[in-house]
Amino acid sequence: MTTEVRVPTLGESVTEATVATWFKKPGDAVAVDEMLCELETDKVTVEVPAPAAGTMGEIVAAEGDTVGVDALLATIVEGEGAAPAPKAEAKTEAAAPASSGGASVDVMVPTLGESVTEATVSTWFKKVGDSVAQDEMLCELETDKVSVEVPAPAAGVLTEILAEEGSTVDASAKLAILSSGDGAAASAPAAEAAAPAAATASKDVENAPSANKLMAEKGIDAANVQGSGRDGRIMKEDVLKAAIAPAPAAAPAPAAAPRAPVSADDAAREERVKMTRLRQTIAKRLKDSQNTAAMLTTYNEVDMTEVMALRNEYKDLFLKKHGVKLGFMSFFTKACVHALKEVPEVNAEIDGTDIVYKNYVHMGIAAGTPTGLVVPVIRDADQLSFADIEKAIAEKGKRARDGKLSMAEMQGGSFTISNGGVYGSLMSSPILNPPQSGILGMHKIQDRPMVVNGEIVIRPMMYLALSYDHRIVDGKGAVTFLVRVKEALEDPRRLLMDL
What we know:
The chain has helices at residues 84-95, 188-193, 209-218, 236-244, 264-268, 277-292, 305-322, 329-342, 386-401, 475-490, 493-497; strands at 2-6, 16-22, 29-30, 35-40, 45-49, 54-59, 66-68, 72-77, 104-108, 118-124, 131-132, 137-142, 147-151, 156-161, 168-170, 174-179, 295-303, 348-351, 354-357, 363-365, 367-369, 372-374, 377-378, 415-419, 438-442, 446-452, 455-469. The protein folds into 3 domains: 2-82, CATH 2.40.50.100; 96-193, CATH 2.40.50.100; 279-497, 2-Layer Sandwich (Chloramphenicol Acetyltransferase). Strands 17, 20, 23, 24, 25, 26 and 27 form a 7-stranded mixed sheet that branches. Strands 1-8-6-3 form a 4-stranded antiparallel sheet. It is globular. It has 11 helices and 27 strands. By secondary structure, it is α+β, with helices and mostly antiparallel strands. 25% of the residues lie in helices and 28% in strands. Belongs to the 2-oxoacid dehydrogenase family.
């Protein structure tokens, strides 16, 4: 029996889509609801599940084809036509060494998250023949948003690696094969003997496995590496920094120009490192933002005297009651929420020819990590107290630095705050985080002479920058927003009175 795979309903006013990726090819076995392909429309990405179990038949619409609603994409042969599937399983079992005496277990790509269809294998922590325990980390994958560690689904011996380091795999790919059972014990001593000398048994904090592997390869002592992870945990990026620290920094070439020739001596002192998928995505999104939005930045400054005084007065009581430190970010978050209510277009986004106004504030808080800038989102920040905001910022900031944020935690923001002041920035123009229409840049607090009531006094001042999409936010709205933020911070009592 043959079952047709057709284009699903794409949504209101959407009449066609492009076939982006096929996850299966003719002859592959498929299960019910297993993802067959991915379609892209001008608004969303749509995954197409298998309507029945069987064997993949003919693919009618190839990758890159444009198809309409209900168009035929492919066919699935049900029943006896699914015979190729057992053969594939038999091949898998045959791949295991005969001496293993155990069953074969497939190591598959774990769930990568909504709209993520592929990943790059960055590091294998085990090699063929190594003994592994259940849930022990086998390898690390990089997507365009986060790093994903792949645990062993069972205890046994790693018999085959199907996806080598650097290869790109789709969301349903097989990474390796384990042989489980009694035979797994045979190679355990050898695997233990092969453990790298950089293992951190003597340390209280376990370093990232990829960092240990890189230190062993480059002959770097962990004592000479400054860890940036949780509790000083050494990450892969820390090892890379330590490896290139003695070399002079090369001036970057203009993006549009080819790389200039270098001498053999200079080439010997350079190191070429492939951009991570996260860094590639950051670069692409930032450039897309500049190319798409009519971005403009307006500036103001705020006297932080009252906020600093209020914080100093209550910080000990705040910590004692809520178990979290009172920082400046909760004040800025509250001030922005207050201003967004008065200037809702800054909290809106463009969708085609529509403007979507958000009757909520999902606040993105930009955070620097060893692998790049990420923006975890605090949902419904307009409904949270100072303590709730501080707890959310602390928790998400820690998870961001440790690379533990899920993709869901970085999606859906309606406005963003970026604090370059923690790095000493005095003035900058932040780039929009699309599809958002506004981002507030905080900067360093610096004592400056100011005229107050006709007298020159020294005050702790901070420059504020609001970058906004001029397509939907007018200059008046942008200036009003910054003025409201300034007023709320210079007199924090206004936040309590909702003024």
